[in-house]
Amino acid sequence: MSRVTGIVKTHLTDRLSWLMLPWIILGSSFAVNVIIGSLIDEEIKTGGLASIFIYMMVIGIVSVGQTYPFLISFGARRKDYFLGTSATIALVSVGTAIALLLVGYVERATDYWGIGLHFFNVPYLTDGSLLSQFWIFFIIMMNLFFCGFAIGAVYRKVGRNGLFGVFIVLGLALTVAFYLITYFDKWGQVLDWVVGISVLELANGLLVLTLVYVAASYGLLRKATA
Amino acid sequence: MTKIVEVSGLSKHYGKVKAVDNVSFKLEEGKIYGLLGRNGAGKTTIMHMLTAQIFKTSGELKVFGEEPYENEKVLNRICFIKESQKYPETFRVKDVLNVSPLFFPNWDKELAMALVEDFRLPLKRRMKKLSRGMLSAVGIVVGLASRAPLTIFDEPYLGLDAVARNLFYDRLLQDYAEYPRTIVLSTHLIDEVSQLLEHVLVIDGGKLLLDEEAETLRGNASNVVGAASKVEDFLAGKRIIHRAPFGGLMSATVLGQLSAQERMRATELGLEIGPVSLQQMVVHMTGGNGNSEEAAQ
Amino acid sequence: MSFPMDDSRPIFVQIAERIENDILEGNLPEESQVPSINQFAAFYQINPATALKGINLLVDQGILYKKRGIGMFVATGVRDIIVGKRKEQFYEQYVVSMVKEAEKLGITADQLTDMIKRGAKEQ
Questions:
Q1: Fewest C-beta atoms under 10 Å: which of A51, A78, B184, C93?
Q2: How far apart, in whole angstroms, are the C-alpha atoms of residue A215 and residue A212?
Q3: In B104-220, at which residue ranges do the beta strands (DSSP E only) sit?
Q4: Which chains touch C (3 or more CB pairs under 8 A)?
Q5: In angstroms, how far is CA C16 from the centroid of its own chain?
Q6: Closest-CA distance of chain B to residue A218, Å
């Protein structure tokens, strides 16, 4: 266990990237929205909250390249690296989700910052109970983190060309899927389905996807060289 | 004596290229080993396999009696200081030193701090902003303070000035005397470290050329200079590792001890016999000039 | 800091020679203690195992002996032993080749002796 904590501590040594930058980025997005919101009279519902989630994906991609070679050459087991990094991601996700909830509460309490800016309360996502809000934030964050982590792992294992290959294959698969949907004239059904997904269903779907990323990352890192 | 490392028929192939070709050797406890050879000879590849950084193609590899891959018991007791160690972007010197004890159970903080002072390392500076010499110094601090039972240094003194290199040798010997462990120094600069080594392994072209006690090697080669034909005649049947023709003269390096009678005969033939340092010996053996040929018939 | 050792000869032999020199020159009197293995290693920047080999060589030759728990000491009467050894080496190294060279140049034994006497005077 202590080895896993060692990995967590190593990641969190970079407080800037893990703990501060997400909020700095979110903060700047928020600031821009505040400025716009104070200039406009109407209520604004913005998607600026997405910035922190996207950043989590970036951190997922970047941290593998930064820490994997270092930690493996310091004698960490790949299994420990995986567990430790996953634990770090989970911890940060929990903490960030709770923090977002708190700020969301403040937003509602201040009547949307007095200028009608819905930044931390996103319709559909934050409509449910406190628990479901926490859960959806947490899952989206975990999903994006691990998506980035998986991308980082792919790069580690098969290099730049391999990564391009994966994207090309994915792109092709998407293109084929789109083509098939168009051919069979199923767009109406697809869009109805998408619109009808409840938050809970979304969370569960993302959870499954996250687990896929997790499995892929571990499988790739097990055989990657430092 | 306990075998710390046992390698048998170890090979690493990258496609057609044999980076390590059927290498076998054993490392014993508590000795300072030199892993010598040219750049790209395969030394680094071997070290990476010993420390589970890369995967072998074939052969057997045991460290502390077990396979090192994903093996905490083994990896816990190794400290591998790579030549081009990558550190996380934002890491400062003090971050590296704070994280180290989490991976090296025998970490001695006082020794680390004393060495930091010796090498005058700026604790708060980012690793990516360090000069090559300071980067090496950090590696040395970690390597020595880890007190790992198997400590491997890969080209540990790149960029270090003479004062710092001497500091390294002094501190290394000092700590090794107090806390004996198995140390492997891998380098292509043999000269300075040669005195520190107890046992020498020479790798060339992926193959193991030499596996000998350092003291057995010292003095086990001679330089013979004189008229070319006389030199060849004198060295018939011996293992010549280097030939350097010069006009009608030739300087040849030969392996093996020369007896008193042979020396007499050399003087009679008008040949000069000179010493060969360990460095020259290794250079000649890995230089590809008259490599291990028998004297021309 | 360090005395560069001659890397073309076994180092343990050179260590033994240096100790012998110290004994000859009076730096290490009989029955005095010799520095420890680790001190030798640190001083000459050599591997302790090599230092040990050199010390053991002298122990085998009876020039040093070990006092349990204390360290290595110079044996009594060894100065003469060393001088004797060195004289024989001197003969092999200098005299034999000198005589051969003299023969080559056609110098007789008497002429050679005169030359030696001249050399001694000019010292």
A1: C93
A2: 5
A3: 150-154, 182-187, 199-204, 207-213
A4: B
A5: 7
A6: 13
| A159 close contact with B: CB closer than 8 A | no
A17/B90 Cβ within 8 A: yes
Query: C89 in contact with B at a CB cutoff of 8 Å?
Result: no
Measured between alpha carbons, how far is C93 from C81 in angstroms, rounded to an integer? 18
C33 close to B (CB below 8 A): no
Please give the ipTM for the structure prediction. Answer: 0.85
Query: CB neighbours of B69 closer than 8 A, spacing ≥ 6?
Result: B52, B55
Pair B185, B19: CB distance under 8 Å: no
Contact residues, chain A, for B48 at CB < 8 Å: 225-226
- Lowest mean pLDDT across A59-63, B140-144, B264-268: B264-268
What pTM, to 2 d.p., does this model score?
0.86
Q: Residue B112: is its pLDDT beyond 90? A: yes
Residue A161 near chain B (CB below 8 Å)? no
Rounded CA gap, C26 and A3, in Å?
Answer: 58
Strands of chain B (E only): list them.
3-14, 17-28, 32-36, 58-63, 78-81, 150-154, 182-187, 199-204, 207-213, 221-227, 239-246, 249-255, 272-275, 293-294
3-state secondary structure of A36: helix
The reply to whether C98 touches chain B by the CB within 8 Å rule is no
> Which residue type occupies A95?
G
